[in-house]
Design brief:
alpha+beta; Beta-Lactamase; Heat Shock Protein 90; 3 domains; five-stranded antiparallel beta sheet; five-stranded mixed beta sheet; 12 strands; rod-shaped
Length: 476
Amino acid sequence: MSNKKKCRGFFKSLRVRLFVLFLLIGILPSAVIRIGMLNSYEKKAVSNRSIDILSQAKILTNQIVFNDYLNDSSSEIINAQLEQLSNIYAGRIMVIDGNFRIIKDTYSLDTGKTIVSEEVMQSFRGEEISKYDSQNGYIEMTVPLTKPESKEILGVLLVSVSTDSIMLNKDYLESSAWIIEVFDAMIIILLSLFLSGLLVRPFGRMEKEIVEIQNGYKTELDVPSYLETQNISIRFNQLFGRMKIIDESREEFVSNVSHELKTPLTSMKVLADSLNGQEDVPVELYKEFMLDIGNEIDRETKIINDLLSLVKMDRSAGDMNITSVNINELLELILKRLRPIAEKQHIELVLESFRPVSAEVDEVKLTLAITNLIENGIKYNKPDGWVHVSLNADHQYFYVKVEDSGIGIPEDSLEHIYERFYRVDKSHSREIGGTGLGLAITRNAILMHRGAIKVFSTEGEGTIFNVRIPLNYIAS
């Protein structure tokens, strides 16, 4: 099993694949050319031999007819020419008369015998037949003996010629081609090894640089050898930059959590030590200190609850409990819960609905988001101020607008208000019990609904939060 995995891993190597590709590109064409050239040589050589034999045979047929050789086969001139042609081409010649009888056989084996074959019959019908038998290695040709005046066919000349010399030449060419091809293959293998190594070298450099980045020796990947490696370097550096930002944010978050949780504990310890360090503590002072300790405990509890809400929201991004909710009734219920807090601070709380709206939302998460926005509008407001909440919708989205007459947000703080534990005015936030997590929770909840949130604020005049959420939830 491990050998199979090693084998698969070996062939997954880009260098190995390039090496194999170069081998195929280099060796296959030469093999195809070798086979094609040898076959072409054989066809051409056989064709040339056939043309030569046919031209000689035609001359000989004219002389055979002119000298009436079919009736008198004792002509020394014709016999000498037949033997000469037979010896030149290492073949066999037979002269056949009109009765299909062999009157001359240069091999002196079948003289006087009768021959009936398809080729002979076709030549008696006036056709010139040429056939190449590659398996047995010979060319067979039949030429009609035609009387010039009457075009009468008197007989047939059958010529059978060996192609051994052609095959010997072909074998010699093939052995030479093999030697050349083996030599070429060795050169191609060396070139393939060199080129495949050269082409994958930038990826090796890239791997080394990534290791150096991991060990902290480098901060950026820079391999501009190819356009592809350059693009990979750019994307890697972008990803690495984002990871560094995330890592720094995580460290900052942990530091902030530690600080925020430690501060109430420190306050409680100071108050407790003050009580323990005094004798005969008045009941009024004791009650005051215990009230302060209780407030710090409430503050610690609120921070922990907000942290739990935020962590739970991060982890359950894909766990949305989507139902069809009447948004008008949801907002009325939220304002009903917050109205006692607003009345306590003399803040006017108004809801304005332009049309009935029903949407597919997670009621708990959306309630938490809208509650945080309205509660912030109440907390960070001026005496006798107001918070207006409006609801509207179109065919695709519904819109919630939360506007207040509060202290506003400085322009340089607007881009940071969704960061965890960020506070515009830390002293004022602590006075009213803010944890710096509310807007982070709100933004997460809205984004989980595939929505968007925007803020517009003028310091000293008030703040407007615009929330847009799809009427129909689209799962990712």
